């Protein structure tokens, strides 16, 4: 099974419960390790649709955000921490991140919060299947959550405002710190 699919299944077990996990595996099975990206994406789409139909959106968010925590590389976190140490303030820090195109390259402050904008979908899995549920984008929210929690050394709250998968022109996330 692909590591992304495995991470999602593990997150279902941990965050939605053993019964939800067993139900998903019983209905959809587990993908072979060498499954094509398109098959992996279709599998994840089916799982998220099932979770979304049978449970509240909050559960899907709780499943996908931890996947985003695992999707970000340690190298990106280390590089971003160095930028933060160099910056005079948060605005300058975001400018440095934008120069390096970390976090989509379109980060700015708005009413004391960081706004992260993706002008394109960076998620390969989402691009490999039609109609991936927008709840998949909570993975990106988790990516931002892990990044800024690590940099600021405190818990941050990330909210998905709208996404390309919802039909918007871009993906927008609000980071409260």
TrEMBL record:
Q: What is this protein called?
A: V4R domain protein
Organism of origin is Clostridium argentinense CDC 2741
Where does the source fall among the domains of life?
Bacteria
């Amino acid at each position: 099974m692909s590591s992304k699919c495995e991470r999602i299944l593990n997150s279902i077990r941990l965050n939605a419960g053993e019964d939800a996990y067993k139900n998903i595996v019983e209905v959809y099975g587990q993908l072979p390790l060498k499954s094509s990206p398109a098959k992996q994406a279709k599998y994840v789409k089916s799982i998220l649709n099932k979770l979304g139909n049978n449970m509240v959106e909050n559960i899907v968010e709780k499943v996908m955000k931890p996947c985003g925590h695992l999707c970000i590389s340690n190298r990106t976190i280390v590089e971003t921490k160095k930028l933060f140490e160099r910056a005079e303030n948060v605005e300058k820090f975001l400018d440095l991140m934008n120069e390096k195109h970390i976090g989509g390259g379109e980060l700015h402050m708005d009413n004391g919060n960081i706004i992260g904008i993706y002008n394109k979908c960076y998620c390969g899995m989402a691009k490999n299947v039609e109609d991936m549920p927008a709840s998949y984008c909570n993975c990106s929210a988790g990516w931002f959550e892990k990044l800024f929690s690590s940099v600021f050394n405190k818990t941050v709250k990330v909210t998905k405002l709208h996404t390309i998968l919802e039909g918007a022109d871009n993906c927008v996330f609000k980071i409260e710190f």
